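Appendix B. One record, verbatim.
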Amino acid sequence: GDTRGASQDKENMADILSVLRSYNKIHGILILLKPNDQKLDLMFKFCIQELLTHLHRDAAKNIAFGFTNTRGTNYMPGDTFDPLRELLQRFKDIQITLRKHNVYCFDSESFRYLAAQKQHNQRLGHLKENRASWDYSVKESRRLIEYFKGLPPHEVTSTVNLYETRYRIIRMTEPMATIAETIRSTISVNEDEIRELSHGETKKKDLEKILRIQVKTLTAVQVDRPR
């Protein structure tokens, strides 16, 4: 959901997957969400579907969902939970469910409180509330780590190969379309000339003039830099 547009999303995903190539296995994939998205809007759908599209289905068992800024929702997923569950139910082949073991609620207000106190000697809110927020977030973080530690790791190669295969197919679409159009054009020209030869009273000298034909070909040219 980068504010610079879908093209930037693709670059970001390419960067993530380029980093993943340096790892053989990953134990956990944490998708972070805000707890106040009441509707299943287009951006919400796009973000979740894009993430799931680029992951191999084997990675589904390693996915967990983290809800941030949950202090205002009493450390619960809030209004986002139902739209997310509804969206995940559409991916029946993957079977990602929302249960206590893969749903975690955090809050960063206590971190902001500490930063303001240390850097500017200012208090943002009440100490007791921020201490409770800190303790709860620490407990959830430890529970998350323990959950990931107990999972069989996902083989990164399968996700990277899936992404690279999809990327190559997309890149091949344009040249394949050009080749197909050239083939259709050539067939059409040939058919016209066959009809002309069949119905015309062309003499030998006239045939010799059109003996040589023009053929369109595609030539690969190596560029200075990779594209």
